[in-house]
Automatic annotation (TrEMBL):
<protein>
    <submittedName>
        <fullName>Phosphoglycerate mutase</fullName>
    </submittedName>
</protein>
<keyword id="KW-0378">Hydrolase</keyword>
<dbReference type="GO" id="GO:0004331">
    <property type="term" value="F:fructose-2,6-bisphosphate 2-phosphatase activity"/>
</dbReference>
<dbReference type="Pfam" id="PF00300">
    <property type="entry name" value="His_Phos_1"/>
</dbReference>
<feature type="active site" description="Proton donor/acceptor">
    <location>
        <position position="87"/>
    </location>
</feature>
<dbReference type="GO" id="GO:0005829">
    <property type="term" value="C:cytosol"/>
</dbReference>
<dbReference type="InterPro" id="IPR051695">
    <property type="entry name" value="Phosphoglycerate_Mutase"/>
</dbReference>
<feature type="binding site">
    <location>
        <begin position="9"/>
        <end position="16"/>
    </location>
    <ligand>
        <name>substrate</name>
    </ligand>
</feature>
<dbReference type="GO" id="GO:0043456">
    <property type="term" value="P:regulation of pentose-phosphate shunt"/>
</dbReference>
<feature type="active site" description="Tele-phosphohistidine intermediate">
    <location>
        <position position="10"/>
    </location>
</feature>
<dbReference type="InterPro" id="IPR029033">
    <property type="entry name" value="His_PPase_superfam"/>
</dbReference>
<dbReference type="GO" id="GO:0045820">
    <property type="term" value="P:negative regulation of glycolytic process"/>
</dbReference>
<dbReference type="InterPro" id="IPR013078">
    <property type="entry name" value="His_Pase_superF_clade-1"/>
</dbReference>
<dbReference type="InterPro" id="IPR001345">
    <property type="entry name" value="PG/BPGM_mutase_AS"/>
</dbReference>
<feature type="binding site">
    <location>
        <position position="59"/>
    </location>
    <ligand>
        <name>substrate</name>
    </ligand>
</feature>
């Protein structure tokens, strides 16, 4: 039995609003974030989920509970947290200004200072971009491509085991992590280095097939477009 997965990015947070690197650090959902999530939740209120999950970071947990509380057709159950679905770890850069961080990453990758992350990824490639982030981190704690690939594989494997026999599930995760999944598993990705960064409250829809193959079939579906899924 195939399992349908609705993969939701959490709502806007204070760090998102302040243009700060967030990663494993946490900041609360903003008023805008909550209001935008209400649209997502309302448009998912008639979608039946056999189980709901979230990463173990509070912004994801709060998002998942808001969606669960609004849903009218799913049986309420205890929310299970899956740490493997937490955001990419940025090490010493967490809490720093995003633009200044990307400049340092670009230089570590052999480029001139550059603040446009898409240009950096297009120049270096996604794996080298991750490796440059770890290299630029003064303490070298940030996840590089190997670290992230291992955790992403673990996350997909765990989700596959967790959802055996379930028809449809929801899991709330994070922008960089969902984008990383998209680069690996979205069949609609035409450029394997550059795909859109998922919006807050957006949904990626995936299928775990009977042979345990994980495949993303819709990506970055905005809250206002969820009725088209």
């Amino acid at each position: 039995m195939a399992t349908e997965v609705y993969l939701v990015r959490h709502g806007e947070t204070m760090f998102n609003q302040l243009n700060k690197v967030q990663g494993w650090s946490d900041s609360p959902l903003t008023v805008k974030g909550i209001n935008d999530l209400k649209v997502t939740a309302r448009n998912l209120s008639q979608v039946h989920f056999d189980k709901m999950y979230s990463s173990d970071l509070k912004r994801a947990i709060d998002t998942a509970h808001l969606i669960q509380d609004t849903n009218e057709v799913s049986v309420p159950s205890k929310m299970k947290k899956l740490p493997a679905f937490r955001e990419v770890f940025f090490g010493s850069f967490e809490g720093d200004d995003i633009d200044q961080t990307w400049e340092k990453v670009a230089v570590a990758g052999g480029m001139k200072p550059e603040r446009n992350v898409d240009k950096i990824i297009e120049t270096l490639g996604f794996e080298k971009f991750r490796d440059a982030t770890k290299k630029a981190d003064p303490r070298h704690l940030a996840e590089d491509s190997k670290d992230l690939d291992e955790r992403m594989n673990q996350a997909v494997e765990q989700l596959t085991k967790e959802t055996k026999g379930l028809g449809r599930i929801l899991i709330v995760s994070h922008g960089d992590f969902i984008k990383s999944l998209g680069l690996h598993y979205w069949k609609g990705a035409k450029n394997k280095e550059i795909i859109p960064f998922p919006e807050n409250g957006s949904v990626a829809r995936a299928v775990i097939h009977d042979n345990d193959k994980f495949e993303i079939v819709d990506y970055n579906v905005k809250s206002s477009e969820l009725n088209n899924l």
